[in-house]
Specification:
This protein has 461 residues and is an alpha/beta fold. It folds into 2 domains: 146 residues, Rossmann fold (3-Layer(aba) Sandwich), CATH 3.40.50.720; 257 residues, Dihydrodipicolinate Reductase, domain 2. The protein has 14 helices and 19 strands. The strands form 4 sheets. It has a 7-stranded parallel sheet with strand order 3-2-1-4-5-6-18, sandwiched between helices. Strands 12-13-14-7-16-17-19 form a 7-stranded mixed sheet. Strands 9-11-10 form a 3-stranded antiparallel sheet. The radius of gyration is 21 Å and the shape is globular. The C terminus is likely disordered.
């Protein structure tokens, strides 16, 4: 990063969980931020020791809908940066506060205030990621301070990797690529029918999961919300024939009444081959779908996630009726395993996967206080910040609006083994959404999405 673009103003980091702790050393070393520029504002003690080691001010105070304006005013003025790494703090409210005060903003997930993910039967889409995204994008204003939304690994870097994957597939198919490609037209030309944002996390800490505990390698509350409280979402392809029962459209995104933990799909990753994962709602499902839609063409876009064993066990407890009472992030210094995440382009003659494979021991060697999962997210934040510091007047932006080459150039050293792999793996030739569903388990099978015999109350309609 050049001295000309080094950020010299103040930074307020809201939240200091696994990602905040993993990011702190890279802010100081990679982006040349001084400890005196930083203040951490968080709701609990997590991260205090990491901040103390580096001389960073650490304040315990939870942001709420009632106090956020007064609290932020104590720490930020024009030209400063608000780095929102929290849960249950409204992105919309914080961006609205930042814009008239000329304060920069970045988050890794568009969040509502606490309770915002609880389903509303009167307005069923208002707890969805698609709806939250639309509310924040509506705040965009030309020549306003840059507010980067939803930019970690995924959402975030996954959209930049998607563009690299499309270029790689074009090269294999000998399709010419424009200097500034029309990504939707390119995907259509390449015969891409389905895109899986596929992830498999094997990291474990060897500890026993307590009854009623929800554990994960990153925000346990975050996964609980998107896998259990929210309905699954999928970008609905133009080749699809049958719409699932009870589904609601928002543009080209289909919102399903079932939670992601109750829908399992087949996907493919290079280390393990065919895998099963949950169909999880995610910001990038909507943003990628929008980027690749022409009006007459759109691929089906899904985030298919096989979380770490502890998280899968936690979701199984919930499915058995055992409520989650406590939340825990696995200690990055104790976990062992791999997080593999990438883009699987499923096209008319096969599939191509492009992404990151990162071992936990390599992550700890590359950057202290990180698991493989947290470092992949941190890499996305660092890349986005480097871009933001050179583009401070762009308004509200997401990954698809940004310079992928610049961001990946900054982020790639932290992503482990980034590779492109061709495979002949596929399902039926028509590549319909329902053909990827796991049908062996009646609860999670396609009959829960397509059979008219399902009780409406059972699917939350």
């Amino acid at each position: 990063m050049s001295n000309a673009s080094r950020f010299s103003k103040r930074i307020l980091m809201v939240g200091c969980g696994s990602v905040g702790q993993g990011l702190l050393p890279l802010l100081l070393q990679t982006l040349s931020i001084q400890a005196t520029q930083l203040t951490i504002l968080t709701a609990d003690e997590r991260g205090r020791d990491v901040a103390a080691q580096r001389g960073v001010r650490f304040i315990i105070e939870a942001l709420t809908a009632q106090n956020y304006a007064a609290v932020l005013s104590q720490h930020l003025t024009a030209g400063d940066l608000l780095l929102n790494l929290s849960v249950d703090v409204s992105s919309q409210a914080l961006i609205s506060w930042c814009r008239p005060r000329d304060v920069l903003y970045l988050d890794t997930c568009v969040e509502p205030w606490v309770g915002g993910y609880l389903s509303s039967h009167s307005v069923p889409l208002q707890n969805s990621n698609t709806w939250l995204r639309q509310q924040v994008l509506a705040l965009h204003h030309p020549d306003a301070p840059t507010a980067v939304i939803a930019h970690g690994m995924n959402p975030g870097l996954i959209s930049h990797l998607l563009k690299e994957a499309l270029v790689a597939l074009a090269q294999r198919k000998h399709v010419a690529i424009d200097l500034k490609p029309d990504w939707a037209a390119l995907a259509q030309t390449l015969g891409v029918k389905a895109i899986h944002l596929s992830e498999h996390d094997t990291q474990d800490d060897g500890q026993i999961l307590s009854r009623g505990e929800f554990a994960n390698t990153w925000s346990a509350q975050g996964l609980y919300s998107e896998a259990w409280l929210q309905g699954a979402e999928v970008g609905w392809g133009s080749h699809e024939v049958e719409t699932p029962l009870g589904a609601l459209y928002s543009g080209s995104v289909l919102h399903l009444p079932q939670s992601g933990a109750n829908i399992r799909m087949r996907t493919w990753l290079p280390t393990w081959g065919e895998q099963q994962g949950y169909l999880i709602t995610h910001h990038e499902v909507a943003s990628i779908t929008e980027m690749l839609s022409t009006g007459s063409y759109c691929p089906t876009v899904c985030y298919v996630y096989s979380p770490c064993p502890k998280a899968q066990q936690s979701l199984a407890y919930l499915g058995a009726g055992i409520a989650a009472h406590t939340f825990r992030v696995l200690d990055c210094n104790k976990v062992q395993g791999i997080d593999e995440i990438g883009v699987l382009l499923i096209h008319d003659t096969g599939a191509l996967w492009h992404g990151s494979t990162l071992r936990s021991d390599e992550a700890q060697r590359l950057a202290p206080h990180n698991s493989a999962t947290s470092l992949q997210v941190v890499a996305g934040i660092v890349g986005a910040l480097a871009w933001m510091f050179e583009h401070p007047r762009c308004g509200v932006v997401e990954a698809e609006d940004m310079d992928s080459a610049q961001i990946l150039n900054v982020a790639r050293p932290w992503l482990g083994d980034v590779k492109t792999v061709d495979t002949d793996w596929s399902v039926e030739h028509s590549l319909l959404f329902q053909e990827f569903l796991v049908t062996a388990d009646a609860k999670n099978s396609e009959c829960g999405l397509y059979s008219a015999a399902i009780n409406a109350e059972e699917i939350g309609v």
